[in-house]
Specification:
Blueprint (H helix, E strand, L loop, with lengths): L1 E5 L2 E3 L21 E3 L1 H15 L5 E8 L4 H10 L3 E6 L6 H15 L3 E5 L10 H9 L2 E6 L1 E5 L2 E8 L2 E8 L2 E5 L11 H7 L4 E5 L31 H10 L6
């Protein structure tokens, strides 16, 4: 069984980003970049399935320039067998990303396509669903547990008040939640070994995908500063403030 895992290179989650002076985008020029946390959980799950004897090959794929080799090497050090870089500098919409991943799905013919439920930069949480729709296969989103049985995936996710479990015929697309597992720490021998694993580069033009977008980023700005809190003397004063200042019906 083959698994393809899509990963994205994003600003490290420990860093607070700020917009550029002209508000045209987020300033990432000097910031530390790393693998998208949700995608790291997807890679970890693929490696665990392989260690359980259910998966024979893991292929990691990302979209970007040569700088994105670092996140692919990260996935290879975790346990992926080979990696694919779709070479391109342009900022892509979720739909364009899904179309490129569809081209990889058709090329690699995986049994399971894993990716994080969302990227922490765009926070759109829609690429996996779009990929499943374009590929015309089943989807399990926000997975907190994945079980493979023969030609079927059983996916569980947390919902309000409980859990929801779906059964998917393979091939299928599954997006990973942070609850799915705990990614392993990388060891130096694994990092050294990752440098010897295959890393293929494909041009977007070679995949025959139109990545033009109907969306345009207009402006990026910081949220307005929060007003300071107010200490009230009693419950009645709190209710009055909620009714008159916050205009909340009670």
């Amino acid at each position: 069984m083959k698994v393809v895992v899509s990963i994205k290179r994003v600003v490290d989650h420990n860093i607070r980003v700020r917009p550029k002076a002209d508000g045209s985008d987020v300033d990432t020029a000097t910031l530390k970049m790393s693998i998208n946390p949700f995608d790291e959980h997807a890679v970890e799950e693929a490696v665990r399935l392989k260690e359980a004897g259910l998966v024979s090959e893991i292929v990691a794929v990302t979209i970007g320039n040569a700088q994105h080799h670092d996140v692919l090497r990260h996935a290879l050090a975790m346990g992926a067998d080979r990696a694919i870089l779709i070479d391109g500098d342009a900022e892509l919409s979720s739909r364009a990303t899904a179309k490129l991943l569809l081209a990889i799905a058709k090329r690699e013919q995986p049994d399971l396509f894993l990716l994080g439920k969302q990227a922490i930069d765009a926070d759109a949480a829609e690429t996996g669903q779009m990929l499943a729709a374009l590929w015309n296969v089943g989807q399990g989103t926000f997975a907190s547990k994945i079980t493979l049985n023969d030609n079927q995936a059983v996916v569980t996710r947390e919902v309000d008040g409980g859990q929801e479990t779906v059964e998917l015929a393979l091939p299928a697309v599954v997006t990973a939640d942070l609850r799915l597992n705990e990614p392993r720490y990388l060891k130096l021998p694994n990092l050294m070994q990752a440098k010897k694993k295959p890393l293929e580069t494909l041009a977007i033009a070679d995949l025959g995908v139109d990545t033009s977008s109907q969306l345009q980023l207009v402006k990026v700005e910081e949220p307005p500063a929060r007003s300071p809190g107010v200490k009230v003397a009693n419950v009645q004063e709190l209710i009055d403030k909620l009714r008159h200042d916050a205009r909340i019906s009670l």
